[in-house]
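=== RUN LOG ===
request id: a7f3
mode: sequence -> structure
chains: 1
length: 111
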Amino acid sequence: MIDESTFRRESDRALDSLKKSLIDAEEEGGFEAEENNGVLNILFEDRPGKFVLTPQTPVRQLWISAQSTSFKLDWSAEQTAFVLPRTGEALKPLIERLLREFLENPAIRLA
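=== RESULT ===
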C-alpha cells in the first residue's frame, strides 16, 4: 500500500487529469464535470443520475459510484495509475467506457 502523501498527490493528479479530459468532452458528450471539496461529479443533461468519484485516503483507493455500482480502484506502481483490479482498466479508460455505456454513445473520447 502506498503512503498517504503519495496517495494524495497521485489521486489529485489523476482526478485533475480526468476532470480536464471530461471538460474537453462535455459539449458533445451530454454531461458536465464539477468538483466540490475533492469529489468529482459527472452530471448528465438528459438522464437522471450522476457518477461520483471520491478519493478514500484510509484505504488508498479511488471510489467511483456509477450505474448503481461501486468501483474501487487501487494504485498500480507498474502502470503508475489507479486501476480497477478485476478488469485491469485504468481510471480514464474506465470512465470513458462507463460514459459510453450509460449514454449509449460510442463516440465519447477522453483524451
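=== NOTES ===
The chain has a mean pLDDT of 95.
The chain has one domain: 4-102.
=== END ===
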